Amino acid sequence: MSLREVYLFGGSGHGKVVKDIAQNANIDVIAFVDDNPKSTSLLGTQIIKTSNLEDISNKEFIISIGSNKIRKAVSERLSKIGEALIDPSAQISNFTVIGKGTVIMPYSVVNSASSIGEHVILNTGSVVEHDCVIADFVHISPNATITGGVSVGQGTHIGAGAIVIPEIKIGQWVTVGAGAVIIKDIPDYATVVGNPGKIIKIERK
């Protein structure tokens, strides 16, 4: 029997995966909560409209929304954020710190002395090596690799299969394209693509 119960804010495709992770970790998902639900249930779990949010405001929430910007906005509406959801298949060093609301998906790796912020998504098969600092609301996509000593700023999105070489500093609200190889520091609000990574625009989000 589960000893932990959570509500998931966001009832779409990403929510389905987060529910799987909760169930794999023996955590009960009581309901999804959504501003604009497209149905009354998802994967057999009820969806509650946010007009009823006050009734459950003291419950434990995980935000199951892929967009970093929206996840940040929703976090400001919730009073109780749950501890990280970690799939049992993930490999997490005992010498790392993981913030509330973060979701770590199957087969991800977080190695020693790294710090993972709040409301981060470490997607399927992603790797965060030793001594990294990953700020709040970051999304590291499937099979991306963040090598040792890298820092990633708030709200940044690292695309699927991207590679960041050691000791790189990536600013906040950066977009790193799928498959990019980052070999130089990246300033805030930049979009970077290619191998080696090239900045194609800098635009405040």
Task: Give a short overview.
This protein is mainly beta and 205 residues long. The chain folds into two domains: 5-75, Rossmann fold (3-Layer(aba) Sandwich), CATH 3.40.50; 85-193, Hexapeptide repeat proteins (UDP N-Acetylglucosamine Acyltransferase, domain 1, 3 Solenoid), CATH 2.160.10.
Structural account:
Helix 1 links the parallel strand 1 and strand 2 (28-34). The mean pLDDT is 95. This protein is mainly β. It folds into 2 domains: 5-75, Rossmann fold (3-Layer(aba) Sandwich), CATH 3.40.50; 85-193, 3 Solenoid (UDP N-Acetylglucosamine Acyltransferase, domain 1), CATH 2.160.10.10. It has helices spanning 13-24, 68-75; strands at 5-9, 28-34, 41-42, 45-49, 61-63, 85-86, 91-92, 97-98, 103-104, 109-110, 115-116, 121-122, 127-128, 133-134, 139-140, 145-146, 151-152, 157-158, 163-164, 169-170, 175-176, 181-182, 190-193, 198-202. The protein has 2 helices and 24 strands. The strands form 4 sheets. An 8-stranded mixed β-sheet has the order 6-9-12-15-18-21-23-24, covered by helices on one side.
